[in-house]
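Is this the right way to post structure tokens for a design question? Let me know if I should format differently. Anyway, here goes:
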């Protein structure tokens, strides 16, 4: 008998093979690449082997099949010249869904939901500490600047809690400790402890009615909103059993923590990008002095924010300027353009429509008219082919400093000489492909986004503080808000509204949702106002109305209310409530609650939000962001992990003979595990692809490698057993351990693990054989490993 030992594993040739000699000779002699048809092949059952091998000195039996399978119908093979018919291949795949395969699938599935590993910034611990502190400061600035209206008057703390007096009967609410219920109302009642009546909030649950004092309710209640049209929860919570709600709340908490990690990685990646700061030149002050109006306080702050981004920071700017129409967003963009262009860079101004692009071109041309060395160009579909070609060449050679246009500016034909700044107006009106192109530019150029009602993703990043934002909510002097009137449609109401405007020598825009029907409306208006000039035009919106100092009116008519969906009614209510000047940001926030977050990070968050509702979800998110460093895990070197179970089974001789170089294969496995989990997964899948499912003894080796690799990533330095006790020594904190336990899908492992003084312990019901104990440890470590996406790993 010959025996070799490597990395704690024995290679033995004393196993007994019962392979039929004729079949073995057949396998040896056959070149399967030359077999043209599957009918020449032996049946599947004849190529299976009965193998025996020693584990702890005890003979065990297990079938093992090398991947001896026929070529496809075209005679084509793969790998070692062997291919698999689909019927056989499907059966083989299902047989290989062992615990290692399931773990690989889970890791790969989670990886696909997130950004690719290559895009994550590599950094040392000291650098990570600095960036995490920056993230916390940025998040606090975001909350203070954008959410000041939701600060509690007494505590000053940020809150998404509901005011009981603003709730309507029938609204769904979330009590932080009890769960989801239906708000009934607020009324006086007498408590058991006092004869004096006090105000109580009454909430209906699945199994009864609850009442709680208004003061207590204001600390514990949240509105239950879902990011889609379905406003009703799947079920109400039970007062008699809060465990189901606790599971939902914990699930939402874990989802929140995963989003925090996504935000961290997105923000850290942006912080890692570098470009030299732009110089501060005296000409910038001269350019600013040309602004003919007195800037509002919010405008002044936005000017300072953008100037600081461009002249003091080394990472590219990505700032949202949010403000209502006519509040001065364009002036902020003009000053940023001047700063960049003065330094020899190009600026691109992107608008969703040619009408808006032409307006920007006119404003920019006039403002830069005294700077003869700065050339402004407009690229539009109305230009002739030769005009377009001329502009493209000028852009390419740097002869145009400022380029204005629509999405065509993002096309492959537009090559920039030295692009430094991208200004995006009304990003929400661009398509998916254009938004992806805009996102790709953010790593290399400074980006300024202007919007009155930003899209959910942009708003979301601004709300969480992970995208710089300046909110211009102060109206210019003498600017009055547009009065918005909501009403069911009648001809009399339309005539009355138009006559009111005509009587004060005003202008009226009658807007329809579709071109079809314009002629009919034209006929109706001509009959009703025979002495008034009427014309048909396309493309005018409410946004062009009400920029002067005279109060403007917007009448929004709808058909019978009973025909409208709940979502439509909510939108109408939001429009009516957000009628004051500077309310565009709040309107966008309401819109996000109504129609959802959108595809924020490549996946819908609807299910996670649905567990607890939007308001509680956001509060949990902000709380988690403010404590981001508490959920940080520090990995340890693979070689420092001590794990020795004295489990060294023998590989069967048939498998050894089948491997081209067994010692080299096992060394490759060890090296792959030392690198990272992805290399180990790739090694295992390649091994199985080439040689088929490994025998049980080889599976034990792989599991030991997986345990050490996952332990290293989790900060576990030692795993040992003592009787029925399994102990893992770790550097993780108790809060990290708690999050891991909350993330676990397996109740068996969740309830058996405890954390004491840097040790994770589990007491089993009985002392297991070593193979079963390895399987238990493998499954336990895999469950802990599943929580990694929710942890900061720097």
């Amino acid at each position: 008998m010959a025996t070799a030992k490597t990395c704690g594993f024995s290679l033995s040739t004393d196993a007994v093979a019962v392979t039929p000699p004729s079949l073995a000779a057949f396998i040896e002699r056959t070149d399967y690449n030359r077999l043209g048809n599957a009918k020449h092949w032996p049946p599947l059952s004849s190529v299976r082997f009965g193998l025996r091998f020693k584990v702890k000195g005890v003979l065990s039996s297990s079938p093992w099949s090398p991947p001896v399978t026929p070529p496809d119908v075209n005679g084509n093979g793969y790998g070692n010249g062997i291919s698999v018919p689909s019927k056989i291949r499907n059966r083989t795949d299902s047989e290989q869904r062992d615990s290692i395969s399931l773990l690989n699938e889970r890791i790969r599935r989670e990886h696909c939901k997130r950004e690719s590993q290559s895009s994550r910034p590599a950094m040392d611990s000291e650098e990570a500490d600095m960036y995490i502190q920056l993230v916390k400061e940025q998040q606090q600035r975001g909350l203070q600047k954008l959410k000041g209206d939701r600060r509690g008057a007494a505590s000053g703390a940020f809150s998404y809690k509901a005011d009981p007096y603003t709730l309507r009967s029938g609204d769904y609410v979330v009590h932080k400790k009890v769960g989801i219920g239906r708000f009934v109302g607020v009324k006086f009642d007498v408590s058991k402890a006092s004869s004096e009546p006090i105000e109580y909030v009454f909430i209906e649950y699945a199994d009864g009615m609850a009442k709680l004092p208004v003061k207590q309710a204001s600390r514990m209640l949240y509105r239950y909103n879902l990011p889609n049209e379905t406003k009703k929860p799947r079920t109400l919570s039970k007062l008699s059993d809060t465990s189901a709600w606790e599971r939902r709340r914990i699930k939402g908490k874990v989802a929140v923590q995963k989003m925090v990690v996504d935000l961290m990685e997105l923000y850290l990646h942006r912080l890692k990008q570098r470009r030299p700061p732009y110089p501060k030149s005296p000409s910038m002050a001269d350019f600013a002095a040309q602004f003919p109006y007195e800037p509002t306080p919010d405008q002044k702050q936005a000017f300072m924010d953008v100037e600081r981004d461009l002249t003091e920071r080394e990472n590219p700017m990505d700032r949202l300027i949010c403000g209502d129409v006519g509040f001065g967003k364009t002036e902020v963009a003009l000053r940023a353009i001047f700063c960049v262009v003065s330094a020899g860079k190009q600026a691109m101004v992107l608008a969703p429509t040619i009408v808006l692009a032409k307006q920007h071109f006119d404003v920019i041309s006039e403002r830069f008219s005294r700077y003869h060395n700065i050339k402004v160009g407009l690229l539009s579909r109305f230009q002739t082919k030769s005009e377009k070609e001329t502009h493209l060449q000028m852009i390419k050679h740097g002869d145009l400093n400022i380029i204005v246009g629509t999405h065509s500016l993002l096309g492959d034909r537009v090559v920039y000489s030295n692009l430094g700044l991208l200004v995006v107006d009304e990003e929400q009106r661009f398509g998916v492909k254009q938004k992806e192109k805009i996102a790709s530019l953010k790593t290399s150029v400074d980006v300024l986004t202007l919007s009155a009602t930003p899209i959910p993703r942009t708003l979301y990043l601004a709300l969480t503080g992970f995208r710089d934002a300046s909110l211009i909510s102060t109206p210019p002097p003498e600017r009055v808000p547009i009065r918005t009137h909501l009403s069911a449609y009648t001809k009399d109401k339309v005539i009355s509204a138009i006559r009111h405007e005509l009587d004060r020598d005003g202008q009226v825009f009658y807007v329809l949702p579709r071109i079809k029907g314009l002629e009919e409306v034209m006929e109706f208006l001509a009959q009703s106002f025979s002495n008034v000039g009427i014309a048909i035009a396309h493309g005018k919106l409410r946004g062009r109305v009400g920029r002067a100092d005279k109060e403007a009116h917007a009448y929004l008519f709808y058909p019978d209310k009973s025909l409208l969906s709940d979502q439509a009614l909510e939108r109408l209510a939001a429009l009516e409530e957000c009628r004051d000047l500077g309310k565009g940001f709040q309107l966008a926030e309401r819109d996000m609650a109504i129609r959802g977050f959108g595809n924020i990070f490549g996946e819908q968050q609807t299910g996670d939000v649905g567990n607890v509702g939007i308001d509680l979800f956001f509060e949990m998110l902000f709380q988690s962001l403010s404590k981001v460093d508490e959920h940080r895990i520090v990995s340890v070197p693979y070689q420092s992990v001590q794990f020795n179970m004295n489990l060294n089974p023998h590989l069967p001789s048939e498998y050894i003979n089948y491997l081209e170089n067994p010692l080299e294969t096992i060394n490759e496995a060890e090296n792959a595990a030392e690198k990272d989990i992805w290399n180990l997964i790739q090694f295992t899948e390649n091994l199985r692809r080439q040689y088929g499912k490994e025998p049980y003894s080889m599976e034990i080796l792989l599991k030991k490698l997986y345990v050490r690799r996952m332990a290293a990533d989790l900060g576990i330095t030692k795993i040992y057993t003592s009787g029925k006790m399994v102990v893992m020594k770790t550097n993780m904190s108790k809060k990290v351990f708690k999050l891991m336990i909350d993330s676990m899908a397996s109740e068996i492992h969740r309830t058996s693990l405890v954390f004491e003084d840097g040790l994770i312990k589990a007491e089993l019901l009985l002392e297991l054989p070593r193979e079963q104990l390895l399987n238990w440890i493998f499954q336990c470590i895999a469950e802990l490993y599943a929580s990694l996406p929710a942890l900061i790993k720097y």
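Format looks fine. Someone answered above. Worth noting: The two ends are 50 Å apart (CA to CA). Residues 243-272 form the longest helix (30 residues).
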